[in-house]
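can u pls check wat happens w/ magnesium ion
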Amino acid sequence: MHAIRHNARNNIIMTGGRFQKSWILCCQQKVSSKELSRFPCRGNRQKGENMEKTVKMTVAQAIVKFLDNQYVSMDGVETKFVEGFFTIFGHGIAVGLGEALDSDPGQLRVMQGRNEQGMCHAAIAFAKQNNRRRIIPCASSVGPGAANMVVACATATVNNIPLLVFPADSFASRQPDPVLQQLEQSSSLAVTTNDAFRPVCKYWDRITRPEMIMTALINAMRVLTDPAETGACCIGLCQDVEGESYDFPEYFFKKRVHRITRPAAVEEELEDVAEILAGAEKPLLIVGGGVRYSEAGETVEKFCEEFGIPFGESQAGKSACKSSHPYCLGGIGVTGTYASNIIAKDADVVLAVGSRMSDFTTSSKHLFRNPEVKFVSINNCRFHAYKMDAVKAVGDAKVTIEALAEKLRARNYKSAYKNEIVEAKKVWDEEMARLAGIEYTGDDFEPIIKARDPRTVPEFVKLTNGKITQTAALAAIRRVIDEEATIITAGGSLPSCMQRMWTTDKRGGYHAEYGYSCMGYEVAATLGVKFAEPDNEVYCVVGDSSFQMLHSEIMTIMQEQKKVNILIFDNCGFGCINNLEMNHGIGSLATEFRYTDGKKPTGDLIPVDYAKIGEGYGLKTYTCRTIAELEAALEDAKKQDIACLFDLKVIPKTMTDGYESWWDVGIAMTSTKESVRKAAEGVLEGRREARKY
Ligand SMILES: Cc1ncc(C[n+]2csc(CCOP(=O)(O)OP(=O)(O)O)c2C)c(N)n1
Ligand SMILES: [Mg+2]
């Protein structure tokens, strides 16, 4: 009998007799060697393989070699999963992972990030644009470098996008202690900065012994390649352990192919959904991100044509289906189109496919006003499938829609819509033409958004000579750039306008991060999308504040010599938040870019020359003050080989407003301001009308 005990780190130690290390790794609890021998850890080993063949490597070298041998397979197409590494070297990571990437990177490319959050944004965008089939892991130093990746991990998790991060961690040995940049918590020396990743990651680990890396990596791969569970995975690398060596079994480095499967919904659940849909007169389908990642766009289009079902799109779902499809109503919800939202009002069955049903998609559960409305959902993740208390079919979007179609066909189903879809779309088309044509008319100009400081528009025009309206700018960009181009957006008023106004028939041509709505995603994401589509033109539309928040990866764009297009919408402030506060009866406070009087930023507007910032990095830049200048600049940029930056002087308050939607953002229930009290009444009314779950 061998003795097995746990040491202080909860690792199994075996004494007496011979044993095989791989078995030990499988053990979760104390077992006898006889029992052990009944459960050999097979992994990917082939019969007759020599168990003793090992290769001495550092943990970091093992990570690189392992990741270089990971593949995914979907619909019979095999793809190399890991493209390379983004790194910002510092303590631990430079001498550990840095050594490994320097001495033998295999086929992995190494890219130098500028801000850890920014490089992770690029990695998220790369994975998203590859429909989650390729990733770029990101490695950081200990402490602040690691902490900078926490936001990005949350962004990845919220958006169900695989992101693998390796933050360096404190010394497992605790010999140098505290090290530079180490977080010291007096309550526990086991707590490090990397514990902050736990709530934002789908898998979390810390490597305190070299052999732990094997199960950590295999589990990270499990999560990263699982369509229902994917998100951020964090593997903290203790600075000393990263460089420690271990005799890794050779079979650990064999090529692994992770299947991305299409699980079909079970018959009973399909039947439940079919039964409800078959009774619908005015059904509405919501296309979520799951449709995009399942590459089910064409299937959804055919389904909608066959049964006469219109569809609205969430931010993540937009461009899974073609904008020109006759049943496409465009964006739905708070930032939706008139067409989507008016059809949603009367719908009697709402079928959400691959959607998280966020408050933006459902207008805080206020959008669906038919008292008899029923919700059904198709989602590969049971958690999301349960949203809105829906009757659900848990499965892959494509195969489940196909199976549902068979059931509806058998029932001779057709919706009862007459002209409603065509009419709603016609109203929206007319509105789109109006939005595209809004021009600055001089002192009498009335922008779309009424809630504003009367000083702002005239002051902005005088200061910048900018005469571009946001809606006309977006329409011009759409007119001029290639249909096949991909466009990126994230925080601010732009995603709202884009979800309403942007049209594309290029599948995946609309790339929005609006799950976390993380300002500062756009510029870095443009690099990630360009990595994914090297031969395509990519454009990001980014608010001035979002640009200010994080544009460090501009330098990486230049370093990687990528031709991308960055369109900055300079409206001198947090435009959408200024609208939000003023729409709720509050004054214009700390949302416009105004000089401060020492107490509040209420002075004159502050001009910023974004073109000069771009010039400083070596980009080709354009300053545009009219639509004609914008069109000419876009045409010229097509001929350029280097990255282009457009400084667009866009009149504040010229973004789109809501269409038939309401959104609960909270309100002060007590205020000395009459305007706030009035706004509170509106909020309370909305809450009364909204569904409760
Ligand atoms: C990281 C982060 N911080 C804060 C916010 C809250 N927020 C949402 S939009 C916005 C202002 C956006 O301004 P800008 O990028 O200039 O776009 P605009 O609304 O003016 O078009 C802020 C502060 C956010 N979404 N993300
Ligand atoms: Mg702005």
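The domain at 268-427 is CATH 3.40.50.1220 (Rossmann fold).
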